[in-house]
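Model it.
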Amino acid sequence: MTSGTTNTGAYEGMLAETVPVRSADGTWINTYHARPLGPGPFPSVVLFHHRPGWDEWYREATRRFAYHGYAAICPDLYARFGQGDPDDVAARVRAEGDVADADVVADGLACVELLRAAPTSNGRVGLFGTCSGGRHAYLAACHGGDVDAVVDCWGGRIVMDDDDLNDRYPVAPIDLTSDLPCPLLGLFGNEDRAPSPEEVDEHERVLADHGKAYEFHRYDGAGHGFFYYDRPAAYHAEAAVDGWGRIWEFLDRTLR
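Modeled.
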């Protein structure tokens, strides 16, 4: 299947299910896995969910990647805080000081290994995330992730002040930029404050200083979460349509 196209005469099908995965630290976590039916080989994508949690939007996004010809997996990054309604679990995570960067990296890289080892894999894996998930995708790639592409959609706290660092966030992701192993696509709203346009400028400057391959796209009138059609105050149709198109073009170029 060619990404972004539909043939009314072609067979189409996918498998989508919850799959337990053992994280790099030994913890068993649930993941949502979707892939096209057929022998492949398929490129793969790990999705890092946003701060609101492992919710319906991210399950739909995982299936959307499968529809476009990718084997996709989205780990429950809040699994160590228990299970239940995604809103309730996310509230518990915030109350307990948020998820630790080390746990997120362990979970994400375990999923990378799982996808790359699949018999239907073409051997190439990308990372995708929105909001905190964009930060986590960038962080996992810079922490020794053997990955081929990263998509960061409005990831906040990549640029961090020293006062924001603690045991859960021991290092600002931007300070790991020299270890970024692959091309990066960034999508940002110019009305966002987390990250602010100034923080996006700083991130771009550091990427350029390190000679990294990247492309950033910024959208006037769009704020935080402009892909989220289930959040009318955040959704920005023009930016979302253009942004998804750029994602498919970028991943086709880097993963196929």
